[in-house]
Structures
1.
Amino acid sequence: MALSGPAAVHPEEVKDSPAVRGNLFLQNKEYQEALRAFQKALRRQPEAPELHYNAGLAYAGLGRYQEALASFQEAVRLSPTWGQALTHLAAAHFKLKQYPEAEAVLKRALSHHPEDPENHYLLGLTYGKTGRHQAAREAFAQALRLKPDHQPARKNLGMAYLKLERWEEAGEAFRQAALLKPQDPEAHLGLCAYYLKKGDRQAAAREYQKLEELDKDLARQLADFVRH
């Protein structure tokens, strides 16, 4: 999930600021160094929500989602309607497979920021993980109404249509996703599944060839699934 970057620091923090250094490390994906810097900054300013938020981004970059969750929770406690913090809190719950908690946070975020396509997209993913594919379809469609070029939402809309056995709509969603991002193997995987369902073996073979060029492991998984 591609979410937003670090929060800005206040002007008075700039001089000899570990927070500024942390942001630079974060932008360069040097997550361990970023974390150290934000922890130092938090010793000076433990009530600064942007520092807890940025520490959460560093933890998430390191794959330490339980600690990221705690940091985002603290950021939200200090700034209850902050959209970015709510989104990342929900994403941390999602990474930890805490889907009811993710759903609750996303609905809270949308009550404050209903025009944020990312929250609708994440809500769609959460619905999909809990088997509510019609609700997922609606959430992805809303994300796309707000941001028509949101490629992950377009691709996952196709996945929702597959689950709902709405084949033509699935195929169209995957075609658009592949146009938006031709190098996305999952878009070609979806098209391959669509064409196999339609019985168009030539088109399926064409998409399989693209998939194999982009992600051999994913292509092998599809081939094994089809054989069995």
Note: The CA atoms of residues 3 and 88 lie 8 Å apart.
2.
Amino acid sequence: MKAPKEVDGIFQADNPMPTWWQLVWLISIIFSIGYVVYFHWYSEWPQEVAFENEVKEHEVKFPAKTQLVAVADGSNPYRGDAVAIKEGEATYKQICAACHGPNAEGAVGPNLVDKDWIHGNTDKEVFVNIMEGIGPERQKLNRGGMPAWNGLGAEKVYSVMAWLATKNDTLVKAK
């Protein structure tokens, strides 16, 4: 054994690792080699199959949503759909109520249940306003802008609009 060397007042001995530690290290290496060989060449569970199984489980748990069909005149496809109206109300209360008030009567944002529409009152115009937002170039009546909500997706926006149509008769399908 070498004599301990001193570095900054700390003595460091060159002691070997304990034998049991060396054995654990050696056994873990042997096990890992065996594990890799078994799972890559002899297993009935290759990575491709595991991925396919996980995709199938995901599709069962979260079925694919039907594609939202755009209506030629720009009207809301969810208008009158009770489920969409309920979901739209929940989305409105979670996201929109902060600016438009809990009953859509206006706060920072404009009133959505009166007869006056600042940026258009058709489904198509309101959809574009929600998805693209109201930037500084489109502001009217000294009202602030509105952020774009295209991250919500068309389905949620149409659901909110369906709920809003039940609160305000002046939101029309199309001109």
Note: Residues 55 and 61 are 10 Å apart (CA to CA).
3.
Amino acid sequence: MDSDWYRNLKPRTKTEYRRHIEMLTLSPYHNKHIDVVTRKLAATLYQAILKSYNVYDASKFVDVWRVIYNFSISEEFTERNPWDKMRVVVPKPRSVVWPQESVYLAIDKAVELGYNDLAMTIALMYDTAQRPGDIMKVEWSDYKEDNHGRYLAITQNKTGAVVYPSVSKYTSSLLNKIGDKSGTKIITSGIIRCRLQLAEVKHILGLDSSLQLRDLRRTAITEMSGSTDDQIMSVSGHTNRQQLSTYSVRQRDKAQETQNKRYSTTSPRLNSEFGHSTGTLPEN
């Protein structure tokens, strides 16, 4: 962890690496030389993690140690990688999508409860198809309005991609009504607090308990399915079609065109101002 390679990792990746390294420290081999781990032992450790945790953690455990051993080979600490080409159970991709009415019900209830940051987080994520971490760091200075319309200028944490997702009339009016512009950031609460508040909102409304904030990105991308891949990528920030299929061009005009199509068809409420107290969808 003292290497330049590790220091250059993103904070979230560092946290993930530390967690999976700690999993190995629980085994009898944590203080042995890396050459002690054979392919057979690596497979045994994987099965132990799979049994104690879950498919996702076990798969990531192998990924992390595969990278660490590749680094060790490059530094000539060892000459082999027992984790390379290991057969693992591939986690099933998450496929949860928010029902459209649930989005607006959750926003309205959050505002009613005074959870303004949660309301704005849901609206911005559903509107712009961005990841939770990218929305949580957005500043008021990133919110733009010019001849293209209303949009955010975001540099994505994960990929470094620069995207300009449009902000709908609905979300813009929501920000103007409940946003606190005395500070720098639009969302001042942390992601953990928003998740806890969302759990309360779902319980009160009787919404599907499996709905999570991160699913709003998938929901928004799904609603853009009538657009071309390049148009969707201009909003989502994906850099290739393979990434898009599991869940580029990023010009403002294409991003605006894609969102306009969505506002007028699959998500008409985004083209109206915030203020519906019932959460019901407007008639077309």
Note: The chain has a mean pLDDT of 86.
